[in-house]
Design brief:
Layout: E1 5-6, H1 17-28, H2 39-59, E2 66-69, H3 72-87, E3 94-98, H4 103-114, E4 119-122, H5 132-138, E5 143-147, H6 161-170, E6 174-178, E7 197-201, E8 212-216, H7 231-234, H8 242-257, H9 262-276, E9 282-284, E10 295-300, H10 305-314, E11 317-318, H11 334-338, H12 343-346, E12 349-353, H13 360-379, H14 382-392
Parallel strand pairs: 1-11, 3-4, 3-5, 5-6, 6-7
Antiparallel strand pairs: 2-8, 7-8, 9-10, 10-12
């Protein structure tokens, strides 16, 4: 029997009931502008301050270190552009990043390269882990910022952020991490983590699209990306999106409360990986253990990932081939290519990202549905026909 299974949580998540309930009063009656001096404005300002305090408690950081943005991409842009703009005045204009970053980081760096800022793109190993010797060699006394994502959005590999942060600081560079995929999957304590800036996005953790956050460590000064009024301590202009900020605070609190449930998610992930790897000519993409709890990325030879997605969708299963931000491109995943996956094999990968809302029955359905789809697609492939003939000889 056909059922609906949502296995694309790395792309976005549904807004939770807890978040909707937290946001509704703000829409209905607490809609004042936090910058207004009258009672309605003071009421809104109190909500804004309260949300900031609650988020600071989640991350064990200072309320003054939290800046609200519109999304993860804005936070990425602001962190990197703001850092090099400020530090280039002190002779530091170099950026170090990895070859497997999200497009919001990679394209920001490429744009800065056009403006004359030198960028070093550090490679990764076959599991998608940054090559630490290469990274260390890349950081110089001219490096302004080291930008390495906390966990990869496509293959789920978790990077050694603590070690990378220490290397950056040893050379006097700032450490920035895009933690969009890590939030809600890893317990992050910013009082201990050696990072100067951290970006996150609400819609990955059951808050709405259109709200993000940038953590900037006390004492770190970066130039503004958006100029205008005096909001966000005069660092990010624009009237605050109060309902969504309240929703983000609630989503982060709920995500932290549900961290113990990730053990169950990991078990479902591993069961799904083991089942899919029983398919001939299949390969797990990303690190086997140092990966996000809900990430399953498997490559199947002799088929196209887009065809696989269409058949999965017909069967009621939502999945992806990689980053939703680059899904309009027919190019092979830059992440898989950087990991050394051949171009023709990179096209046959599928990403299934599950969550605490996923059930064992959902996993059963994916396991019984996906292998027959692969078989069907391979039977239509001339390349597969050659494999079958070769094995019969």
């Amino acid at each position: 029997m056909k059922r609906f299974v949502y296995a694309d949580n790395a792309a976005t998540t549904p807004v939770s009931r807890e978040v909707i309930d937290a946001m509704t009063p703000v829409f209905e009656s607490q809609w004042g502008n936090p910058s207004s001096l009258h009672s309605k404005g003071r009421e809104a300002k109190k909500l804004l301050d309260d949300a900031r305090e609650r988020i600071a408690k989640v991350f064990s950081c200072n309320v003054q270190e939290i800046y609200f943005t519109s999304c993860g991409s804005e936070s990425d842009n602001w962190a990197i552009k703001g850092a090099v703009s400020r530090l280039s005045k002190k002779g530091r204009n170099h950026i170090v990043t990895s070859a497997v970053e999200h497009p919001a980081v990679l394209n920001t760096c490429r744009e800065l390269e056009k403006q004359g800022y030198p960028v070093t793109y550090v490679g990764v190993d076959s599991d998608g882990v940054v090559k630490m010797d290469e990274l260390e060699a890349a950081i110089t006394d001219k490096t302004a910022v080291v930008a390495v994502m906390f966990a990869n959005n496509e293959v789920g590999t978790i990077q050694p952020i603590e070690e990378i942060g220490r290397l950056a600081h040893a050379k006097g560079a700032l450490m920035f991490t895009d933690a969009v995929q890590a939030i809600g999957n890893i317990d992050i304590d910013l009082s201990k983590l050696p990072v100067d800036m951290l970006a996150l996005s609400g819609h990955k953790i059951h808050a709405p699209k259109g709200i993000g956050m940038l953590y900037v460590k006390k004492g770190v000064v970066i130039d503004s990306l958006i100029n205008g009024g005096g909001q966000e301590k005069r660092k990010r202009a624009g009237t605050e999106n109060l309902p969504y900020i309240v929703g983000l605070a609630k989503a982060l609190e709920v995500a932290k409360e549900k961290l113990p449930e990730l053990e169950r998610v990991e078990k479902m992930r591993d069961r799904l990986i083991e089942a899919l790897l029983r398919v001939p000519y299949s390969k797990l993409n990303g690190h086997r253990t140092k990966r996000l709890p809900g990430n399953v990325n498997v490559g199947f030879e002799f088929i196209e990932g887009e065809s696989m997605l269409l058949w999965l969708d017909i069967a009621g299963i939502c999945a992806s081939t990689g980053s939703a931000c680059s899904s309009a491109s027919l190019e092979a995943s830059h992440v898989l290519l950087a990991m050394g996956v051949p171009h023709e094999k990179a096209h046959g990968s599928v990403r299934l990202s599950i969550s605490h809302e996923t059930t064992e029955e959902d996993i059963d359905y994916i396991i019984e549905t996906l292998p027959p789809i692969i078989e069907k697609l391979r039977n239509m492939s001339p390349l597969w026909e050659d494999v079958v003939k070769a094995n019969k000889v």
